[in-house]
Design brief:
Blueprint: H1 4-34, E1 42-44, E2 48-52, E3 58-61, E4 64-66, E5 73-77, E6 85-91, E7 98-105, E8 111-114, H2 119-122, H3 126-144, E9 163-166, E10 171-174, E11 177-181, E12 184-188, E13 194-196, E14 201-210, E15 214-222, E16 225-232, E17 234-235, E18 242-243, E19 248-251, E20 263-269, E21 272-274, H4 276-281
Parallel strand pairs: 1-7, 8-10
Antiparallel strand pairs: 2-5, 3-4, 3-6, 6-7, 9-12, 10-11, 12-20, 13-19, 14-15, 14-18, 15-16, 16-20, 17-19, 20-21
Bound molecules: zinc ion (ZN).
Zinc ion binds next to strand 12.
């Protein structure tokens, strides 16, 4: 008697039973993962955090309810000085609330001395201080609302390519006077260098001459995520314009409080400032 054919028959029989079982298991696992909350275990201060939740979930972070995309994506920002853990409250449809925690890892914030800026921009006289306050109000108002555009979920590109001459979060000292932390990333490039939209969005502010920030453009990338481009010498967009990733929005300059030509690129999640470099590094 030759046992081989019989073994083969048994193996085929087992496969006929096991393969559908395996398929069912995989299908079940896929369904289970779609019902899970996926968020990074830890992030750095200044990070923009992307998470996945079951579609139709109610989600909140620090008391603000977050909009959920059709794909179940939510996004929120971690401030420069945030500490401990970030808590995301997620209530999937028909389920109890889950609290997902994301550990916030601290960073070093070096002191950066900036000398040679015009003295009147460091300690402005009262009439200038009023103008600055007025302009700041305009910027705050432009950032208060955010649309349902999906630019925030794109892989951001550099608006200009060049040396990073100022990093996000560094403690700035202007002409020896302590100022606030650097709110964005500076890239040293020549005046006239075209600035590209790092992701698609809607232009919500386009001012050619603001006192501190000079030529200023704000883009809303949706879901609370925004970019600002400062010290521009020329603006190529107006409020209400839709821009696609890579579209030219203006040209680099040295307008406002600047010691030389560079692009200041800041990013925000509503009023929380986040680090563009971390957004660029996402998925690298
Ligand atoms: Zn800057």
């Amino acid at each position: 008697m030759n046992p081989k054919p019989s073994t083969n028959r048994m193996a085929r029989g087992a496969a006929m039973v096991l393969l559908p079982l395996l398929w069912l298991t995989l299908a079940w696992a896929k369904q289970a993962s779609a019902a899970e909350v996926v968020a990074p275990a830890h992030v750095q201060q200044g990070a923009l955090v992307y998470a996945r939740v079951p579609s139709g979930s109610r989600v909140s972070y620090e008391g603000r309810s977050l909009n959920v995309t059709d794909y179940g994506t939510v996004v929120f920002g971690i401030g420069r000085d945030a500490k401990g853990v970030a808590r995301l409250h997620v209530t999937p449809p028909g389920q109890a609330e889950q609290v997902v925690t994301v550990e916030i890892r601290p960073r070093d914030w070096p002191i950066e001395r900036v000398n040679g800026v015009p003295p009147k921009t460091v300690s402005p006289p009262p009439d200038i201080a009023r103008r600055i306050a007025r302009e700041q109000k305009k910027v705050t108002a432009a950032r208060a609302d955010s649309n349902q555009g999906l630019g925030f979920a794109e892989h951001f590109i550099w608006p200009v390519r060049g040396r990073i001459s100022g990093r996000f979060g560094n403690q700035r000292v202007y002409n020896g006077t302590p100022g606030s932390a650097h709110s964005g990333m500076d890239i040293a490039v020549r005046t006239g260098t075209p600035v590209k939209a790092p992701a698609s969005g809607t232009v919500v502010l386009a001012e050619p001459d603001m006192y501190l920030t000079g030529g200023t453009v704000l883009i809303d990338h949706g879901y609370g995520v925004g970019s600002n481009f400062l010290h521009l010498s020329k603006l190529d967009v107006a409020v209400g314009d839709s821009v696609a990733q890579g579209d030219i929005i203006g040209e680099v300059g040295a307008t406002g409080r600047a010691t030389g030509p560079h692009l200041h690129w800041g990013m925000t999640w509503f009023s929380t400032r986040i680090d563009p470099l971390l957004v660029l590094q996402r998925g690298d």
